[in-house]
Recover the amino acids of this structure.
């Protein structure tokens, strides 16, 4: 139901720090219709060309101030992922995505206040790295 | 006095999400279509709730004085599942609701809509705060989550027991669907390939004056005929499972609670080219409210936005404007 909120088109790119590619990242809106504390993000998953990224390599920020691992996010009850403000999902991987075309799938799953099951949104985009 | 109109800003959530409309643009739009007031989900369009910064409050104050719309209803949620590992304790839940009451008061609202399934036990411990700040706590009574659902019934019983002007209900017209929303069947058929016979059967059930929530209650499980028409769960289950959210109740289901109605959600799935809502007869609903002396607001809550195909534009502004035109006309006719 919220698939269209996931993985904003044109946002996936390699990340360069101190002259080195440390990984890649993409932006996404929330799979819900309101903002929630980060502890209510049930999980985030990334798959590239059919291969799942290890959970421990994923980092998440709702605002580019604080970055968290998915495990750390489970305890973050005071910082919110606001509705209408894209969060950034980063995958730490030396060298990032290789040149060429990749099928990148992002899944975002949130727990909600009254719906008994978590709300999952998926989006796969073709990403070209030049 | 009389029935007044409002727009739940939920209706325009995609305009906000996609950055096409700011909150100021949305207020202007609501004013331009002559609605009297607004309803808001602070978690959706304000930042840092339930404890926003003074800067956020100042922006809100500027907006509300600029447009002078009635501040009708504040839609809140209780994050009982804040943590993955445990449910919040009662004390934690009560504290969260108290924070929401204080924020609602500061924003200028006198009615809080508690989302369906909010536990009844928050009421008594929060009542003193509600009275102090002049904010009524009202449960949403929504199709599929309303009358006959344990948690809602518990809330209603507690409301009757406490019998306070600061506790009430917000009925949602998803309870009064005379036709199953067409837009949902079209969406599921085009996107998932949902079995047309299943959709046709759903239409027949509503034509026969019942609904799938009632049939599920009667059978104690999914209506057997509905289950038999699920040929491929990947194509059919989403549509079938969603059906119980639309009820075909008589208006009289509200009779025992009518004095507790503080606000009404006028659910909108699809305005047709003829200027009526496809599923809900709003004249029938407004007649009922008028007959019972209701003089609060009725708020457009456009939910058709969920049922637009991914590559199509969501006609939210057009749908909301058309719905407001209808209900404003009906109110004039009924009230004279």
């Amino acid at each position: 139901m919220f698939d269209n909120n996931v993985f904003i088109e044109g946002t996936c790119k390699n990340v360069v720090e101190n002259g080195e590619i440390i990984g890649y990242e993409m932006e996404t809106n929330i799979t819900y219709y309101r903002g929630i504390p980060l502890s209510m993000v049930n999980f985030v998953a990334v798959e590239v060309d059919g291969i799942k990224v290890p959970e421990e390599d994923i980092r998440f920020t709702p605002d580019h101030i604080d970055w968290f691992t998915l495990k750390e996010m489970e305890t973050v009850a005071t910082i919110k992922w606001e509705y209408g403000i894209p969060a950034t999902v980063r995958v730490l991987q030396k060298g990032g995505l290789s040149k060429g075309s990749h099928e990148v799938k992002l899944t975002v799953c949130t727990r909600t206040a009254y719906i008994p099951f978590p709300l999952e949104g998926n989006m796969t985009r073709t990403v070209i790295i030049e | 006095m009389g029935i007044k109109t409002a727009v739940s800003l939920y209706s325009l959530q995609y305009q906000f999400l996609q950055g096409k409309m700011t909150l100021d643009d949305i207020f202007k739009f609501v004013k331009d279509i002559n609605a009297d007031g607004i309803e808001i989900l602070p978690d959706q369009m304000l930042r840092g709730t339930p404890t926003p910064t003074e800067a956020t409050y100042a922006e809100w104050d500027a907006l509300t004085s600029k447009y002078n719309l009635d501040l009708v209803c504040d839609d809140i949620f209780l994050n009982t599942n804040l943590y993955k590992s445990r449910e919040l304790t009662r004390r934690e839940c009560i504290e969260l609701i108290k924070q929401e009451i204080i924020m609602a008061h500061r924003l200028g609202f006198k009615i809080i809509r508690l989302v369906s399934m909010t536990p009844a036990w928050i009421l008594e411990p929060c009542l003193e705060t509600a009275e102090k700040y002049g904010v009524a706590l009202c449960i949403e009574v929504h199709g599929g989550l309303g009358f006959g659902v344990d948690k809602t019934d518990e809330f209603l019983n507690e409301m009757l027991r406490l019998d306070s002007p600061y506790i009430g209900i917000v009925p949602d017209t998803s309870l009064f669907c005379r036709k199953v929303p067409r837009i949902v069947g079209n969406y599921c058929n085009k996107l998932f390939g949902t079995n047309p016979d299943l959709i046709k059967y759903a239409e027949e059930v509503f034509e026969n004056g019942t609904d799938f929530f009632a049939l599920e209650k009667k059978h104690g499980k999914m209506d057997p005929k509905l289950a038999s028409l699920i040929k491929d769960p990947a194509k059919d289950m989403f549509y079938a499972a969603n059906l119980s959210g639309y009820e075909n109740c008589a208006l009289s289901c509200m009779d025992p609670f009518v004095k507790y109605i503080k606000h009404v959600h006028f659910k909108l799935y699809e305005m047709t080219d003829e200027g009526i809502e496809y599923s809900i007869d709003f004249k029938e609903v407004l007649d009922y409210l008028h007959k019972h002396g209701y003089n609060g607001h009725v708020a457009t809550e456009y939910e058709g936005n969920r049922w637009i195909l991914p590559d199509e534009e969501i006609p939210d502004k057009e749908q909301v404007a058309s719905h407001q035109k209808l209900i404003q006309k009906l109110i004039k006719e009924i009230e004279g």
Q: What stands out?
A: Chain B touches chain A at residues 10, 13, 16-17, 19, 41, 43-45, 47-49, 77-85, 115-118, 145, 306, 310 (CB under 8 Å). The CA atoms of residues 143 and 246 of chain B lie 5 Å apart. Chain B has a mean pLDDT of 97.
